Predict the structure.
Amino acid sequence: MRNSTSQIPNPPTLNAIRRCPHCGVASPYLPVKWAGTTKGSDAAFASERHWGAFCCSSCGGVIVAMSNSTTYDADLLDRPDLVFPKTPSAADDIPEVARKFLQQAMDTIHAPDASAVMAGSSVDAMLKAKGLTEGSLYSRIDQALSNGILTQGMADWAHEVRLGSNRPRHADGDNPHVTEEEARQSVDFAEALGNFLFVLTARIQRGIEAAKAAED
Ligand SMILES: [Zn+2]
């Protein structure tokens, strides 16, 4: 790799990643496997870009990073313009309590029992943030359906997430564990519900405000 103004370890490591997107390990050690620069023949991609492929020491998964700057390694290692795959992250527009549960559900996907319980707690916290504070998660989901906050399909899925979180929580006698696939479905639903209830609304509100400001 090229020179840099800051101290680059040998081998250079990708430092911009909080958790490995493949295995979820925190502060992953990601030494470079390959690095180089590219240019496209299309005029839109004619300026040189700096790419690196980095390998997680825990799981061997490869993460690709790109920097529009080709001058300093630190730009690629510490401040890349693109990282693939991305580490899942709960959106800022989701209320604090629900967002923290959702982030923990995302971070523990390889410990599916923990992840499923956190996804259930996240859904519960989202419904509470919508003013449904009485009773259990079971009754909150049904209330959300009758209030028109959830559609029938979403309520059915929310009950699946609730059941998935109850199995490890109550050490279900017949079927206490959830699979990684089941946990992933619960996390996907909690994320989709957060997008539907909070992220989309906040984005639309910002759009309306921006349009108003442009008119003034
Ligand atoms: Zn990994």
